[in-house]
């Protein structure tokens, strides 16, 4: 009888541990290995590297200043430091989210709203997963789609190769150029040394030569955020 009771208690303990298992991250319903969620102060934290790499992104760790760079070689350029609630996206001003990045068991964790607020992806939460809905797959269950989430406010749009637009510069700061695309409306162009800028005579000039009220022609980079307004890392700018 005692043995039977011990076995029952052991089984109950196993079931309790199983019931309390941490949810994992899924990308379009595909569970990511090693992506258990950690909760701190009511905030769900995701492990950076397995989640980012499952999304096709590159993660770089700088041990000197405990900073992380997440990029895809295009519009995604997110940086942050451990312990500092200040996330930057494509050289925008640092913004606070629901918590600072932390290191747990040698892994870097970020709050889930980095995915929703910076990447503009939607997360469908359940007891088992935080399912990230990316541009490649949209939810087919209407009940799961948030009413206040515009269908065009998710992820990144792929542009046609060598997509070109003309329009007027409305505002310029140290990091960005606000461009009124004649077809798309306002687009934020990120400044970078890799952007080729030429004047109307074909001479290469510094990107800081671009000023408000100028008419320009822009060759967009391959992807544009689907935020409002969208952000793009341009290939070239021609001052007309």
Explain what this protein looks like in three dimensions.
This protein has two domains: 23-154, Copper Amine Oxidase, Chain A, domain 1; 157-239, OB fold (Dihydrolipoamide Acetyltransferase, E2P), CATH 2.40.50.140. The protein has helices at 2-19, 48-54, 113-118; strands at 24-27, 30-36, 38-40, 43-47, 58-62, 67-71, 77-81, 88-89, 102-104, 107-111, 122-125, 129-133, 156-158, 164-172, 176-181, 185-190, 196-198, 215-219, 223-225, 231-232, 236-239. Helix content is 13%, strand content 39%. The radius of gyration is 22 Å and the shape is elongated. The longest helix has 18 residues, at 2-19. The protein contains three helices and 21 strands. The protein is mainly beta. It has a seven-stranded mixed beta sheet with strand order 17-21-18-14-15-16-20, with no helix packed on it. Strand 3 and strand 4 form a beta hairpin. Residues 1-19 and 136-154 have low confidence and may be disordered.
């Amino acid at each position: 009888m005692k043995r039977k009771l011990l076995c029952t208690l052991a089984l109950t303990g196993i079931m309790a541990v199983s019931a309390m298992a941490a949810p994992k991250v899924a990308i379009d319903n595909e569970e990511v290995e090693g992506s258990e969620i950690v909760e701190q102060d009511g905030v769900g934290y995701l492990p950076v590297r397995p989640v980012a790499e499952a999304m096709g992104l590159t993660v770089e760790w700088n041990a000197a200043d405990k900073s992380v760079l997440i990029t895809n070689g295009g519009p995604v350029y997110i940086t942050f430091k451990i312990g500092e609630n200040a996330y930057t996206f494509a050289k925008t001003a640092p913004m606070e989210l629901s918590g600072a990045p932390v290191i747990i068991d040698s892994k870097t964790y970020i709050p889930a709203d980095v995915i929703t607020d910076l990447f503009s992806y939607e997360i469908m939460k359940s007891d088992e997963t935080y399912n990230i809905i990316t541009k490649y797959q949209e939810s087919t269950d209407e009940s799961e789609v948030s009413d206040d989430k515009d269908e065009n406010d998710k992820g990144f749009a792929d542009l046609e190769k060598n997509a070109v637009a003309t329009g007027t510069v409305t505002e310029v700061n140290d990091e960005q150029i606000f461009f009124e695309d004649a077809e798309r409306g306002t687009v934020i162009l990120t400044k970078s040394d890799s952007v080729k800028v030429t004047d109307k005579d074909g001479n290469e000039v510094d990107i800081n030569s671009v000023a408000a009220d100028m008419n320009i022609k822009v060759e967009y980079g391959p992807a544009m955020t689907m935020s409002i307004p969208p952000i793009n890392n341009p290939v070239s700018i021609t001052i007309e």
